[in-house]
């Protein structure tokens, strides 16, 4: 192992910085899926929404020179994908999971087709907040240079945790998610609530895609996502549909994903690439450890097709 400017402390520092960078897309996709699943619908199409959002954000940022407009455009595109998904799923005998897989492939195909002309141009990046100005060590300064979307994601997790419990919209969402019949008896239209929840979930997932293309890694290409959209569904289950749990679980997944680069940054030249599989291994371990044939998933919405 080669020496670095801050010695062995380089590993935890690199993992900390990597956890924040890698976790940000997971935060937004998992929070979006939490909203959708709280209404009683599962959306496996978020991988396609994530990639299409990444392409849309990058293209709009290239054309307008504004990364903020790129994020807003991605949100609009994600909402449209969610509306399409929600509209199709309202029909009788339509399977949420099958439609989600179809929407995922549709989103990926559209992103690859429309995004070919934007692979070469360079888009402006999203701003970050430099919290390491107090230090003269470049590694610490880089680790504490945090993108603004991470803070927005943290605030959104806290807000959703409060809103689910303390607002009328949160109550309606929970009622619809727990029992379609009870919602109808209260005069609530479950299809409309699920349509809007799926649109909101798609919009947030697209923000995660915008982060990938406009900040980290900060480019557009067809391999920009490594399955974050699908892994976020497992993350939501692990977090038991709790927004704060989603935020913390995203950090855990982000830290696992940062292991490989962290080891490489301190001079480990052999075997570090095996740790790039850590997030996927962690996903399998978590799903196996939390599954049981004798008990239901704690906190799961009663009407969610995943739990039926």
Quick gist of this model?
This protein is mainly α and 308 residues long. It has helices at 10-38, 46-64, 67-89, 96-114, 138-143, 148-166, 168-178, 180-185, 190-214, 228-238, 243-257, 259-265, 278-290, and strands at 128-130, 145-147. The chain has a single domain (7-290), classed as ABC transporter involved in vitamin B12 uptake, BtuC (Orthogonal Bundle).
Polypeptide structure, described:
With 308 residues, this protein is mainly alpha-helical. The protein starts with 9 loop residues before the first helix and ends in an 18-residue tail after the last helix. A two-stranded antiparallel sheet has the order 1-2. It has a single domain, classed as ABC transporter involved in vitamin B12 uptake, BtuC (Orthogonal Bundle). It has helices at 10-38, 46-64, 67-89, 96-114, 138-143, 148-166, 168-178, 180-185, 190-214, 228-238, 243-257, 259-265, 278-290; strands at residues 128-130, 145-147. α1 runs parallel beside α6 and α2 runs parallel beside α4 (96-114). 66% of the residues lie in helices and 2% in strands. The protein contains 13 helices and two strands; from the N terminus they run ααααβαβαααααααα. The mean pLDDT is 87. The longest helix is centred in the first third of the chain and has 29 residues, at 10-38. It is a multi-pass membrane protein.
CATH architecture descriptor name: Orthogonal Bundle
**How much is the average pLDDT?**
87
The end-to-end span amounts to 51 Å
Query: What is the helix content?
Result: 55-70%
Total beta-strand segments? 2
Number of domains: 1
Number of helices: 13
Strand content: under 5%
> How is the main sheet built?
2 strands, antiparallel
**Shape, please?**
globular
Radius of gyration: 20 Å
CATH class categorisation: Mainly Alpha
N-to-C SSE string, H for helix and E for strand: HHHHEHEHHHHHHHH
- Helical/strand content category: mainly alpha
Low-pLDDT runs: none
Strand order within the widest beta sheet: 1-2
Transmembrane segments: 6-32, 69-88, 97-119, 139-164, 193-214, 246-266, 272-290
Membrane topology: Multi-pass membrane protein
Main location: membrane
Keywords: Cell membrane, Membrane, Transmembrane, Transmembrane helix
């Amino acid at each position: 192992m080669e020496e670095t400017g801050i010695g062995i402390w380089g590993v935890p520092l690199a993992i900390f910085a990597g956890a924040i960078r890698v976790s940000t897309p997971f935060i937004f996709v998992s929070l979006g899926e939490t909203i959708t699943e709280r209404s009683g619908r599962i959306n496996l199409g978020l991988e396609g929404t994530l990639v299409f959002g990444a392409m849309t954000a990058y293209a709009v940022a290239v054309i307008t020179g504004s990364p903020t407009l790129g994020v807003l455009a991605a949100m609009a595109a994600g909402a449209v994908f969610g509306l399409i998904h929600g509209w199709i799923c309202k029909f009788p005998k339509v399977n949420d999971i099958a439609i989600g897989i179809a929407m995922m492939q549709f989103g990926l195909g559209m992103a690859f087709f429309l995004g070919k002309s934007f692979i070469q141009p360079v888009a402006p990046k999203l701003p970050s907040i430099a919290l390491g100005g107090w230090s003269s060590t470049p590694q610490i300064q880089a680790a504490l240079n945090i993108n603004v979307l991470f803070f927005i994601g943290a605030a959104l997790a806290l807000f959703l945790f409060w809103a689910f419990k303390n607002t009328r919209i949160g109550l309606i969402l929970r009622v619809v998610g727990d029992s379609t019949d009870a919602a109808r008896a209260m005069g609530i239209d479950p299809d409309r609530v699920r349509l809007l929840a799926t649109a909101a979930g798609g919009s947030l997932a697209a923000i995660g895609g915008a982060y990938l293309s406009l900040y980290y890694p900060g480019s557009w290409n067809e391999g920009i996502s490594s399955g974050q959209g699908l892994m976020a569904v497992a993350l939501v289950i692990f977090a038991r549909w709790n927004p704060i749990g989603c935020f913390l679980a995203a950090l855990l997944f982000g830290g696992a994903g940062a292991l490989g680069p962290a080891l490489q940054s301190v001079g480990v030249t052999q075997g570090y690439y095996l740790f790039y599989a850590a997030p996927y291994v962690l996903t399998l371990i978590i799903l196996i450890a939390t599954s049981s044939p004798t008990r239901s998933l704690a906190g799961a919405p009663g009407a969610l097709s995943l739990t039926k």
